[in-house]
Each structure stands twice: as C-alpha cells, then as structure tokens.
Amino acid sequence: MTVPVFEEYEPAIDCTCAGCAVQRRTAARAVAVRYGGHPAAHGARRALVLATAAGVVLSCGATGAAAAAGPTAGVPRADEEPAPVPATP
Known about the structure:
By secondary structure, this protein is mostly helical. Helices cover 48% and strands 0% of the residues. The chain starts with 17 loop residues before the first helix and ends in a 20-residue tail after the last helix.
C-alpha cells in the first residue's frame, strides 16, 4: 500500500472559499515569530521561568536561614571531635 503524497500550496489572495478566508484571518491574528511566535510558546516560557524561580527559592532559603541562625550550643560541628562521654560509677 502506498502512502499518499500531499503538496502544500499557497492559495490566491482573492480566493473566496471559506477555508482560504479562515486561513487568512488566522495568519493576520498570529503573532510574528520575532515577537514570541506561537501563543503556546508564551505559556511554556512562563512555566519554565516559574519552575526555575521556585527551584532557586527552595534551594537558597534553607542555606540563608541556617547561616542567619549562627552556631547552635551543644551541637558539635562536623569538623570537631565529639566530646568524650563521662564514665558512670
């Protein structure tokens, strides 16, 4: 079975059929590629920016809060030796 071959064509400007009229109206309302292209591209771009901003906020927030809190009393740092446990009598 052979695959049908379709050719793309540009209809004449003065064509009055309904399909050509719809195609002309759609092309007239379309955003130029240099201004962002397809409207769905704007939504995808917004979602990517939102995900990036959320990742930055979530990853930097804990570090900033820990640095602002300063050292805690009674908790040894990772580079210190733990204090010896006194022997019970």
